[in-house]
From TrEMBL:
Record-linked CDD domains: zeta_crystallin
Organism: SAR92 clade bacterium
InterPro entries registered for this protein in UniProt: ADH-like_C, ADH-like_N, ER, GroES-like_sf, NAD(P)-bd_dom_sf, Zinc-ADH_QOR/CCCR
Protein name, entry field: NADPH:quinone reductase
Keyword Cell inner membrane listed: no
UniProt cross-references to PANTHER family, sorted A to Z: QUINONE OXIDOREDUCTASE
Length: 331
């Protein structure tokens, strides 16, 4: 099968290879998926760059955890009725070396979810990390109906879905964005107001948008950099759910300030979410897809042979939306 892989850590252009690899064998409890698309997330490029030093101890790695395609075969213990099913995939390259940047992947059947016929494979490749992370951030700490949520980076991969989950659940949403087009996207999704996180006092601008009422919860994309502003606009007993801190990798916590406010700090990553939370997210995603209640933002689709470009896009940033690798050749 055609696949992409790396055998050393480094830059995308230096270490990512595309060629032939053995087609995986379907074992008990697994399904074999013929992939159409593969989603690229920050965790994928961090792994390739060496964030998990022991990752290559067992040999080469086919990257990416998210993807979408069609079940071609099933192992013992899996109903043959699943053959031919359109599916989306999550956690393909978690705790193992075989991911979705290939024509085929085998995976435990519970990680392979039915994709409704009204949903494109491009979208299917964006559900695992972005949609599931956002659902967990929004719903992990109880009912939000009637609460005010601040979602930083509302036009980004996770923030875009978080706005929608929050609005569906009855929350009032304030979000941040850095340009007019992203601002318009957030408002179209149901945000009440959008502030510019490039401005030094954006936390105070949140309070202006809420007429002085502090927010109940924060869904945050840059914890270390954003924390000082968040502390100025979050209410006592509030919750900060964060899933990234790229700019400030080792944040310093003002412990007493946060303790006196009785704040809850939740860190979210799909791989470590409780199974009950994963299933709750999957059920919500399935219903929303079937009822066409979710908007999606796929901004880049590149062929497998140009996978290094996909990784470079994630590393460079500067845009919202998902990056998808297509198994179809550009030739």
């Amino acid at each position: 099968m055609k696949a992409a892989w790396f055998e050393n850590f480094g830059s995308p252009e230096d270490v990512l290879q595309v060629g032939e690899q053995p087609k995986p064998i379907t074992e008990e409890g697994q399904v074999l998926v013929k992939l159409v698309t593969s989603g690229v997330n920050p965790s994928d490029v961090k792994k390739r760059a060496g964030s998990f030093p022991n990752l290559l101890d067992g040999g080469l790695v086919i990257p990416h955890s998210d993807g979408a395609g069609v079940i071609e075969a099933v192992g013992n213990g899996v109903s043959p009725s699943r053959i031919g099913e359109r599916v989306w995939i999550y956690q393909a390259q978690y705790g193992r070396r075989q991911g979705t940047a290939a024509e085929y992947v085998t995976l435990d059947a519970q990680r392979v979810i039915k994709l409704p016929h009204n949903t494109d494979f491009d979208v299917g490749a964006c559900l695992g990390i972005p949609a599931m992370t956002s659902h967990r951030c929004v719903h992990a700490d109880g009912d939000i109906n009637g609460q005010t949520l601040l979602i930083t980076g509302g036009a980004g991969r996770v923030g875009y879905y978080a706005i929608q989950w929050a609005v569906m659940a009855g929350a009032e949403v304030i979000t941040t964005a850095s340009n007019s087009s992203d601002r318009d996207l957030c408002l179209a999704l149901g945000a009440k107001a959008v502030v510019n996180h490039r401005e030094e006092d954006w936390g105070q601008q949140v309070l202006v948008a809420t007429s002085g009422k502090k927010v109940d919860r924060v869904i945050d994309v840059e914890f270390g950099a954003n924390l000082p502003q968040i502390l100025g606009c979050i209410a006592p007993n509030g919750v900060i759910a964060t899933y990234s801190s790229t700019q400030v990798k080792t944040p310093s916590l003002p412990f007493l300030d946060m303790m006196y406010m009785d704040l809850t700090l939740r860190m979210v990553i799909v791989y470590a979410m409780p199974e009950s939370a994963k299933q709750a997210a999957i059920e919500a995603i399935s219903i929303a897809l079937e009822q066409e209640k979710l908007e999606h933002r796929v901004t880049h689709v590149v062929p497998l042979e140009k996978i290094s470009k996909a990784h470079e896009l994630i590393e460079t940033g500067g845009f919202g939306g998902c990056v998808v690798v297509s198994m179809e050749s550009s030739e």
